[in-house]
Design a protein that fits this description.
- The complex is a heterodimer of chains A (503) and B (278).
- With 503 residues, chain A is of the alpha+beta class.
- Helices cover 20% and strands 36% of the residues of chain A.
- Chain B is built from eight helices and no strands.
- Chain B has a domain of 194 residues.
- With 278 residues, chain B is mainly α.
- Chain B starts with a helix and ends with a helix.
- Classes of the chains: A alpha+beta (503), B mainly alpha (278).
Chain lengths: 503, 278
């Protein structure tokens, strides 16, 4: 264990890992990066010949136990081993002894297990799937961050307070007895001098015990402060914005802990499906407008985007980046803009606007598309439940009501979806492979050993594209949500929007 | 020790699994464990002082072992400040001066025989060396991740501190100062202990950090699975705790003064046990 402390002590001097490992010790936090307010990981992909849907329930505290749930698409899997590793760099190649995910007795295609996540930061869970088609491997990136600290309940507090008093008083009396009678033969009565000396020793011991308890209290406070700092380190950074030249929005990241900028260098963020930053600007409070832009990095680690024409108003900002270790962050901010006479959208940038889409005459499962046609949410009749792993499937129809046959890859994928709670405390940017960032996925794949001749699954190679797009995800908490679904047809990005009430 | 259980469990829930030695609940556990050893020493001292020769001799050896266990526990608590990379810091010697003399000298003084400090220090060394040399013989693999080191066997903590030398030096001093008062004896015993330890451990640290110590005897090539030594930091580089020579020597002066108080505490504790009758 000492090695760990030594390692921690050494690593605290290293900006990058020190804060991850500040193990570590590394406050009530509403939300976290890797999206906002949506900590669990949902991923759908292939472990060799096996198609699986993986859900990782990230623990509330780190180190803590993550729950891993795996649903196999076929009934041909015999066993699944799971191991935690770092996503990249040291710690990404040496697996510990694997844990075995237990196969459900009621549902042979469902496996579940638990893993200790021992460190903050960019980790991955590696699955080794064994079945009738041989073995296959899959690595799922997991951003491991603590979400809260636990308060002490009244019964436990009372018990510990009683034991503290009992032990403290006991120590004082033991010290007195040791001085008063320790050097006497059994049965011999202590002289008055010994009794007085014992009282003095008891008083000194009481003071010493009080001092030790005070020091302990201060120490506890310092440890809790350190942990809170680590938790704060992983809170979503603030997106500080400035409008220049009438339509140029400059964004700077500011961590909620002062050391954040030592940990994440904005100059070193890596591209995530073709872009360093994915900026979402959502009109508030009604969410009646949404832009998906891709700012370019400028000097000093800032990012800048030339805004398209936008009406004056208040906009919520969610800006996704991925640091060089593969850890995804979402910068969060709010900006009040005047009317923008900007340039026309180009490239991968896109926009959506509509009147309020929730109303008695509006089918919540159908969204008209700007270029003609419509998008239909193929949802089941069951109510939507929080924390339930689901597949959100959307069908795209052309203006004649037939399945669209002109879908194209949009930034390398069949679609992008943004799940946003009405109170804006939840924001998740989801892909057909799930909630993991594509940059992290590429890092995970780079360190996953595949057997010779085993083709690596590539969810991007999904051409020709079907007129449906599906997103694995689960709402993190009950409430009202808006889902934006973005696809590309005939060179044009189109967005469908749907409202959902989650129980 | 029992109190630490619900406290530690809550701590894990609140702040995660505290994978470190010195945390508040672990310290409470350690204090409980240490208190049991102190009580054991006191009970054995009372019995020893009321016993005849053969029983007394056996109890003496038991006391040596328990005293060595106390020293082992204290050295474990001091793992971080006395880690090889920290052995060229004054804080290392300050930590040793605070913690080790009370237990070592109390046990030795209570025995009232020659070479008692050496016996206790040697027993501590034997216990530590047994762990150092036996644990690597047991096959093991890490069961938690991430894993930074390829591990095939249990990993010992580290090579023992060279406490034998200060033990011998204090014994030599005590053999010639039987008539000295306790404060005068402490005023010399403390500095002799800490300075002789400094004299041997400092150069020995140079060796530990060298290629010659990276073998099964000294164990300097062993790293725990969770230790990114060699990846994220250089494990063979001395840490710098004191930025200036004056800071170093100031801390060493504090260590010497503290060692006198620690030695006096050890002598008082040992004297009490020597006179123990219950």
């Amino acid at each position: 264990m000492g090695r760990l402390d030594a390692a921690n002590a050494a690593m605290r001097k290293i900006p990058l890992r020190a804060r991850i490992m500040a193990l570590l010790m590394l406050a009530g936090v509403l939300s976290m990066n890797a999206h906002v307010g949506s900590p669990d990981v949902y991923y759908e992909g292939d472990a060799g010949p096996y198609h699986v849907y993986v859900t990782v329930r990230v623990p509330q505290v780190i180190p803590g136990v993550a729950e891993i749930q795996i649903r196999c698409s076929d009934n041909d899997v015999r066993a699944i081993q799971i191991v935690p590793m770092r996503l990249s760099g040291p710690g990404s190649n040496l697996p510990p002894v694997p844990d075995l995910a237990q196969q459900s007795k009621q549902d042979s295609q469902f496996f579940a297990g638990s893993l200790w996540l021992m460190e903050f930061g960019a980790l991955k869970v590696r699955l080794t799937v064994d079945g009738v088609k041989g073995k296959g491997e899959l690595s799922v990136p997991v951003p491991a961050v603590a979400q809260r600290t636990l308060g002490m309940g009244r019964p436990l507090g009372a018990l510990l307070a009683f034991l503290m008093v009992f032990l403290a008083v006991g120590l004082v009396f033991i010290a007195g007895a040791a001085v008063r009678e320790g050097n006497l033969t059994p049965g011999e009565a202590p002289a008055l001098g010994r009794v007085r000396r014992a009282r003095v020793v008891m008083a000194i011991t009481a003071l010493a015990v009080g001092g030790i308890l005070s020091l302990g209290r201060a120490w506890w406070g310092a440890e809790a402060g350190n942990y809170r700092r680590d938790v704060n380190m992983f809170k979503p950074p603030v997106a500080e914005t400035k409008l220049e030249h009438g339509n140029r929005l400059v964004i700077r990241a500011k961590g909620q802990d002062q050391a954040w900028s030592e940990y994440v260098k904005m100059e070193e963020v890596i591209p995530d499906h073709n872009h360093l930053m994915h900026l979402f600007m959502i009109g508030v409070p009604g969410m009646e407008r949404m832009w998906h832009l891709h700012p370019e990095r400028i000097e000093g680690g800032a990012f800048a985007a030339d805004l398209p024409p936008m009406p004056a108003g208040r906009y919520k900002i969610f800006a996704d980046i991925v640091d060089k270790d593969g850890f995804p962050w979402t910068l969060v901010g709010t900006v009040d803009l005047p009317k923008i006479n900007g340039k026309v959208l180009a490239g991968d940038d896109s926009e959506w606007s509509s009147a309020e889409i929730t109303g008695p005459d509006v089918d919540p499962h159908v969204s008209p598309l700007a270029g003609g046609g419509r998008m239909v949410w193929l949802s089941s009749s069951h109510p939507l439940l929080a924390n339930a792993a689901m597949n959100f499937t959307f069908a795209v129809e052309d203006k004649d009501g037939k399945p669209a046959n002109d879908l194209e890859l949009y930034m390398g994928m069949a679609g992008h979806a943004e799940f946003v709670s009405k109170d804006l405390s939840v924001f998740a940017h989801i892909h057909p492979s799930g909630s993991v960032s594509m940059a992290a996925l590429e890092l995970a794949r780079a360190t996953t050993e595949m057997p010779a001749g085993m083709p690596m699954a590539n969810p991007l190679a999904n051409v020709p594209l079907a007129p449906k797009v599906s997103f694995p995800y689960g709402f993190p908490r009950p409430g009202a949500y808006r889902i934006f679904v973005q696809i590309k047809r005939g060179g044009r990005v189109e967005t469908g929007a749907f409202d959902a009430i989650v129980d | 020790m029992l109190t630490s259980a619900p406290f530690d469990n809550w701590w894990h829930n609140a702040y995660g699994l505290d994978v470190k030695i010195v945390s508040p609940p672990h310290t409470l556990l350690s204090l409980g464990s240490f208190a049991i050893k102190v009580g054991t020493l006191a009970l054995m001292a009372g019995l020893m002082n009321r016993s005849v020769e053969e029983v007394r001799r056996r109890l003496m050896w038991l006391s040596v072992f328990v005293g060595a266990a106390c020293v082992s526990q204290l050295v474990t608590i001091l793992t971080i400040p006395t880690w090889p990379a920290n052995m060229h810091t004054a804080k290392c010697y300050l930590a040793v001066a605070i913690a080790i003399p009370p237990a070592l000298m109390a046990t030795a003084w209570s025995l009232g025989r020659r070479w008692a400090c050496t016996l206790v220090a040697t027993t501590y060394t034997a216990i530590a060396l047994a762990f150092q040399w036996v644990l690597p013989l047991i096959p093991a693999e890490p069961k938690l991740g991430p894993v930074y080191q390829h591990i095939t066997h249990l990993i010992p903590l580290r090579f023992p501190l060279l406490l034998i030398v200060p033990g011998v030096m204090v014994d030599l001093l005590w053999s010639k100062t039987e008539k000295w008062g306790k404060w005068k004896l402490a005023a010399v015993s403390g500095p002799v202990f800490v300075l002789s330890f400094l004299a041997v451990q400092w150069p020995f640290a140079n060796f530990l950090m060298s290629q010659g110590a990276r073998n099964w005897v000294f164990g300097m090539a062993y790293f725990a699975y969770f230790d990114p030594a060699g990846f994220l930091y250089d494990p063979y580089k001395f840490a710098v705790a004191e930025k200036t020579p004056s800071e170093f020597w100031g801390t060493m002066a504090v260590a010497v003064v503290i060692s006198i108080l620690a030695a006096r505490l050890g002598l008082a504790w040992g004297d009490w046990m020597r006179r123990m009758r219950r």
